[in-house]
Amino acid sequence: MKQTILELLDSRVRAALQAAGCPDAPAIVAPAGRPEFGDYQANGVMAAAKSRKMNPRQLAEQVVTALDLKDMASKVEIAGPGFINITLSPEYLASLMTAALGDVNLGVPQPPAQRVVIDYSSPNLAKEMHVGHLRSTIIGDALARVLRFLGHTVIAQNHVGDWGTQFGMLTAYLIEAEQQEGEMVLSDLEDFYRRAKQRFDEDAAFADRAREYVVKLQGGDAQVKALWQKFLDISLHHCAALYARLGVALTREDVRGESAYNDDLPVVVADLQAKGLAVESQGAQVVFLDEFRNKEGEAQAYIVRKQDGGYLYSTSDLAAVRYRVGTLKADRVLYVVDARQALHFQQLFTLSRKAGYATGMTQLEHVGFGVMLGEDGKPFKTRSGTTVKLVDLLQEAEERAFTLVSEKNTEMPEADRRTISHAVGIGAVKYADLSKNRNSDYVFNWNSMLSFEGNTAPYLQYAYTRIQSVFRKADVSNEQADILLTESAERQLALELARFADAVHAVGREAAPHFLCAYLYDLATHFMRFYEACPVLKSEGAVRDSRLRLCRLTADTLKTGLGLLGIETLDVM
To answer: Which pLDDT belongs to residue 271?
Structure first.
């Protein structure tokens, strides 16, 4: 299949609208809200009729007459003032099931390939990752997996914070501490950073030394650079361990931090000056963006070089756009960054296009996300009010899952329970986040995310293991059997399976993993209904073989879909 069902229906309805004299009318095809409305509904007729001053139902009749769906639909009806309801035929659905079972991509067509750069995770080095890094990391990872699945070339960019004043502060404190105590082991970066920051805030002489070390670092001083590299290596080791535990496919090769653009910053500023974009304002180099004005009507300032000659992350981001489009040849760049940075990215993208660093063909997108909240409705913290380390959150997730798994499997060896609790605990944390609209804040709740009921990872993982248990009991099945869709529950399950491609395409198009989560929950729900209404192992002959094949495709789709979210499936739970 070269198109998803929605794309195919959309193109057919558009052609029918064109034949009816409405060449520019939108088809607006979507899944029907209720079964009595068929499987899909085309809703573009009324808008087209209004623009032509026609009776909507009369136009709908013309569209249906021209609509060619003989190979797909068993019924096409006009409803209400001009809706067109479309019911897919059992034969067409069965053919989709057979094709998906024989395809490594489960029948998901691939759109035109792009080179996609995804900027995600981006922790500040010299500090341990905390819960604030979770959303960027797992949303970015899910998008990378989906886009690769769709055939795109994906280039991950972990734009870590590895430059600036904080490293001068840390270097000064490390030298001071080693002079007093000998060689220090940086086993607790968070504690080390806290002590260094306290010295920086309380001792003016120390703060001056820290700033001197920043200048030395930027100037390439060998000793300071060696200490800086020491902080980086230890920090990246911590990050790698967390990425492995989370099942996130980021590597050291994907790291390209702020420091990577240091040499290019004066080049970028000079280029902006030469193009008449950057001008001096109170000693700083500033680009005034007429597209963004304050309440007084004044163009907002995008500072690219400070009064003291230093550069900002806004300058690094410009250099990064230039590199990603010019060197990496990106067609699309996704920035998976906190929604509170929305204005910065709007300005960055505008200036990048004005400067010629990104053409009109290049897609620059801020994939913003909300905040993880505690049950008090405030940003998620420890009971003492401090930031929660990501490693501590993941450890608690696994321990809570281990308790639940142990209650259900008292006779299972501990090693097996530990393996299951890792998949369940980490999966629960990731799915609880990914299943929410990323633009929204959400409340972190252990009980709801680890529940085996409702829209949770454990529920979906359990649905998969339930199907695996069916196959263990079935012994053999006919992998070439025809798909028979005679019962309502069989047909509804097949219809849901056929919608997998549209769900995956929606995630890739909108950079919104929650579409896939919602789909997988609906699929699992339809499978459970099918399992209750249509006995599999007790059925016989062709019916049994057909139902086993529906079970197989459901299991493959759940496994693939959860895998695209970075969540493990298990044969036994």
So the answer is: 97
- For residue 105, give every residue at least 6 positions away whose Cβ sits within 8 Å of its Cβ, in sequence order, or none: 149
- Site of tokens 């079970």: 551
Give per-residue pLDDT as tens, 464-474. Answer: 999 999 999 98
Query: What's 78's domain CATH number?
Result: 3.30.1360.70
CB 564 within 8 A of CB 145: yes
* Spatial distance between the Cα atoms of 310 and 164, rounded to a whole number of angstroms: 9
Domain annotation covers residue 473: no
DSSP strand pairing (332-336 vs 115-119): parallel
In a domain, 136, yes or no: no
pTM of the model: 0.93
* 292 located within any domain: no
Record the tokens describing residue 119, joined without a space: 């900027």
* Strand order through the sheet with 73-79: 29-31, 40-42, 83-88, 73-79
Tokens for 493, please give them: 């399950």
Segment 487-504 shows an average pLDDT of 97
Rounded Cα distance, 187 and 192, in Å:
9
Question: What are the distances in angstroms from CA 365 to CA 250, 292, 315, 338, 521?
Answer: 20, 18, 18, 13, 28
pLDDT digits (tens, 9 = 90+) for 382-405: 666 677 889 999 999 999 999 999
Mean pLDDT on 441-448: 91
Tell which of 203, 230, 251 closes a domain.
251
Quote the domain boundaries for residue 69.
5-88
Q: Does the residue 22 lie in any domain?
A: yes
Pick from 221, 251, 281: which residue ends a domain? 251
Amino acid letter at 351?
L
With beta carbons less than 8 A apart as the criterion, state whether 74 and 90 touch.
Answer: yes
Q: How far, in Å, CA of 141 to CA of 511, rounded?
A: 11
**Into how many domains does the chain fold?**
2
Q: Which two tokens stand for residue 533?
A: 């209404």
